[in-house]
Amino acid sequence: MSAAVPTAPVTIQTQRPGVPFGRLVKVELRKMFNTRSGFWLMASIIIIAALAVLAVILFAPDDALTFALFGGALSTPMALLLPIVAALAVTAEWSQRSGLVTFTLAPNRGAVIGAKAAASIIVAIVSVALALAIAALGNVVGAAINGIDPVWDLEPLQISYFFLGNIFGLMIGFMFGVLLRNPAAAVVAYLVYSFVLPAILSLLAALQDWFRDLQPWIDFGYAQMPLFDGGNLTGEQWANLGTSSLLWFWIPLAAGVWSVLRSEVK
Amino acid sequence: MITVEHLSKSYGAFRAVDDVTFTCKPGTVTGFLGPNGAGKSTTMRVMAGLTIPDSGSATIGGVAYRNIPNPGTQVGVLLDASAQHAGRTGREILTLSALTMGLPLSRVDEMLALVSLSPAESKRRVKNYSLGMRQRLGLANALLGDPKILILDEPANGLDPAGIHWMRSLLRAYANQGGTVLLSSHLLPAIENIADELIVIGNGTIVAQGTKAELLQGAGAFVKAADNAALASALAQAGVSATPSNGGLTVDAEPVQIGQVAAAAGLALVELRGADSAGLEEMFLQLTASTQREGVVTPGGVA
Is the complex ipTM more than 0.85? Predict the structure, then answer.
């Protein structure tokens, strides 16, 4: 190029299309798989689901081999790992400092956080679907090995509750990621929330009458139990989910997002 | 065009950036020079919308960074080459940026070739990269969207001499095509040969700005005579102050005036020259002396 060619003055174009949300979701999904740790975290969900199904086939008595039992065996590893996936998707931007590039290319931080939430939910839905497929396979194989007919005792409603329950769990991990923005703190907070807090609250409910009636309204974990018990949720049970999620999910998430929007990325 | 106006940012009682105002013009390379912790990075983070200033503003082409649509295609930013997920490969990092900006993935290979990262290197994880390789990857990331404005924080850090030379020609070509380039450094030699304009910052405030020639104006001259003492007294009689340095004299006057004084006094000169990079270096140290962690260090004064 000749130096004599006149150059147009550089101006910033404000009428160009911005970065669409769908593209951000695609990028966030890719980020969950393209590190070695991310890849193995995802793989471990499927591997542990397969191991849980194998254990059920090996150790459960024949007459207990039902689809519901296989599904139940999967719920603990899913409930443990999915929230960690979501928490790490958020906190890595700060702990690995990749947010410096992420938020420079997409300055709308709310959209980036939203894309991470969408990508996490997509991962949860696909993982739960894969896990249920593995459970179904286990049910068929287990029945064949034992020479019995496979028992399909999960209604579509229960399966949809199973999805919903796992998405709730994942979003709690996501919320701790946004609120704390540190992987270790977010994982510890999630473990305390899901294992220590229920024990304390149930102890409180056992000792104090006034709390026993209040618990379904303010204890998000307790309010979610009907989702895994089977059967249709009553209006009051949905209301319980609403009020307790406000306390344990929406309010802390709002505080976390507010802080992400204002905080310095460095 | 990058415009920074009355920018201030404090962290508690520490004033990192204090009422900083400057502009970077299209077609020029602006060097942002200052010792560690002078406020360079904070100013650049404000430009990229990552830090909210207490007061003042930074705009690019009159627009606040966060209002620029798909900013990566208009402004190339490199703030910290090491701020990348260590477990990701170099190629994946560029791929993520290309996907975000909506660019064809062929751009990734073009940029890897431009910054001389081999295909094998691009498939290694960033934790195995040297600082120089991270710096090349960061430059590739900044150039990916073919922006006309570049904001680069310490891009020469960790590059080998050949790499620094390559970067200079690259940025020069960008500016010659009408681009605006701002690059920071804490080392004068890294940017003095490329920057058209220098902005010197110390302790959060701008202590000098202008072209290299402008900054050197009044920086004096260096002279060495067969008899330095006689020359010093001749200069003193002419009303010009001179201080001994490096076996000669640093004189607060233009070379022609010193030559005239020496000729009139009949003194033989061994060396006479205007202030050069050494003068600029000295000036940089003096300008930022109050912010230097080591106190004033004069050239030749260190054992």
Answer: yes
